[in-house]
Structures are given as structure tokens and as C-alpha cells.
Fold:
Amino acid sequence: MINKASKLEIATYLNNVKKLLSAGKYVFVPRRKNMQALAQYGLTIADAKEEILGLAVCDYYKGPKQDFDSNRPGDIWEFKKNVDGIQFYVKVKIVKENGDYVLKCIGFHEDDFA
Structure:
């Protein structure tokens, strides 16, 4: 089941995302699909970070939902964002590692769910 969040929940989550990004608590997961998308569109991991910082409530797609990977507990949130005229799919998750919260960007690639 896919949860739909309220605007307030989305805004609160994005606020937490941006706090972690600004504090440098950020990991871009170098999945093949993510790295290919960056290369294809001439983007860097820093560009991806900037795009995530620019996410707005209106970019919300779905979530929170449980991560399928039981070894990595936490909720996944999904967004769709226009990057230079291309619709990108952005999947993020806040995880606790070594007692600290970290934002993980799990998905950042052209939206193939449209």
C-alpha cells in the first residue's frame, strides 16, 4: 500500500531533508541508473543535491512507504521534479547511521514511471 502524505507532512519532511543536506549529512547512492542519468544529462552529484534542496511540496509523488530492503529500515519518499525540461524521479530516505541522521538519495534519474 502506498501512503499519501498531507501537505503539512510533506513540508515537514522536506524541511528535515534540507536541514540534513545543509549540514552535509548526505549520501548519493551511486546506483548504475543514477550515475547513467547524471552522465547523460551532464549533471554532477552536487547538481543532484541542489535539485533536492529545491524540492517543493508540489513535487511530491508518493510516500512515505516502507523500504523493501529489511536490512535498511526507514521510510522512502518519492518526488518528481523538472530538471532542465526533463522530468526526474527522486527517491530519498532519512536513515540513522552511527547515531546520526543522514539523508540518502536512492534514486535520481529520468522519470520512467510516467
In short: The longest helix spans residues 7-22. The helical segments are 7-22, 32-40, 45-53. The chain is about 30% helix and 35% strand.
